[in-house]
Amino acid sequence: MKILVDNKEFTLNTTFNSFGELINEIIKKLKAEEKIIETIIVDGVVLNTTSIVNVSKITLLEIFTKSHKNILFHSLFLLEEYIQEYFKTLKILEDYELDPLTYDMKVNEVVSFLNWTLNLLYSLRENTYIEFFYVGYNEFLEDFKNSYDNLMKALESGDYEAAFDILEFEISDMLSALGENIENYKKDILIDENSSTHAI
C-alpha cells in the first residue's frame, strides 16, 4: 500500500489489522504537525462516514489535511455571518410576539451560536498567538465566558427577562467588538500560518 499525505509519500513501519487502526495511527502523526484529516481517498474513491474499507486490499491511500489555523481562519468567515444572524434573531425576539415553541427555538439558536463562538475564542487562544497580539484578549474571553454562564443560569431558572438583558447589554456589545476585529484576526492567522509553512 502506498500512502500519500498532501501529495507527499507517508511511511508507516507497521502492519494494521483494520482500516480504523491505520487511520488512527496517521491521525496521531498528523497531530504532532498540528494538522487534521479533511479528505480520505482510497484507490481513487472519496470516503464518507459510512464507507467500509478492507485494509488488506488498499493499493493507494491519499489523505488531504487542514491545519488548525486554516480551520480557524475559515471559522472566522462564518463568525461574521453568524454575528449578523444573531442580531437579526435578537430583533425578532424583541419585536415580535412569538408562540412559545418558536420563541424557545430562537433562544436555542442563540445559545448554540454563543457556545460555538466561545469554543472558537478558546481555540484561537490555544492555536495562535492572539493573546500576545491583543493585550486585552484574555480579559475579553473571561468576560464573554462569564456573561455566557450568567445567561445559561438565567435561562435554566426561567428568568427570560434577565437573560434578554444579558444578551442585549453585555453579549451584544462584545459581539460587536469582536466583529470589528475579525479582519485583523484573519490577517494575523495568515501571517502565522505562512510563517509556520516556511519554517518546515
Account of the protein in words:
This protein has helices spanning 19-32, 68-95, 100-127, 130-133, 137-156, 160-199; strands at residues 2-5, 8-9, 35-42, 45-46, 60-67. It is of the alpha+beta class and 200 residues long. A five-stranded mixed β-sheet has the order 2-1-5-3-4. A hairpin with a 2-residue loop joins strand 3 and strand 4. Helix 2 runs antiparallel to helix 3 and helix 3 runs antiparallel to helix 5 (137-156). The chain is elongated. The chain starts with a strand and ends with a helix. 14% of the residues are buried.
Write the layout of secondary structure elements.
Elements: E1 2-5, E2 8-9, H1 19-32, E3 35-42, E4 45-46, E5 60-67, H2 68-95, H3 100-127, H4 130-133, H5 137-156, H6 160-199
Parallel strand pairs: 1-5
Antiparallel strand pairs: 1-2, 3-4, 3-5
Helix pairs in contact: 2-3, 2-6, 3-5, 5-6
